[in-house]
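Q: Hi! First time doing this. I have a protein sequence and I read that you can turn it into a structure. Is that right? Here it is:
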Amino acid sequence: MALFIAKKFKVSKYVAIRRALDLEILSQDIYWKTIAEWRKRDRRRKGKESAGGNYPATQVSYIGKRFVGLVMEALRRDYLTPIEVKGIVGLYPASIESYI
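A: Yes, that's right. Below is the predicted 3D structure, encoded as structure tokens:
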């Protein structure tokens, strides 16, 4: 239930269950047992997941492939330098190539 509510309201599962405790929907025993179980599960998962996202892919997606493509085309035509591309897009040209 708390996981469904957390997803629906875009908050963490810990916030959702704490709110349920504050509204007296859950007893303190159930709250603390659930928290202990989640923490144990989160600790086990922590080592298995990747270290994070892919910054170049995220940046290209955020700025837009079309814009990044135009900037890269300007680089190819020598209208821009790699340093200017870095200033505009936030990435060096070598890290952009595979995402456009």
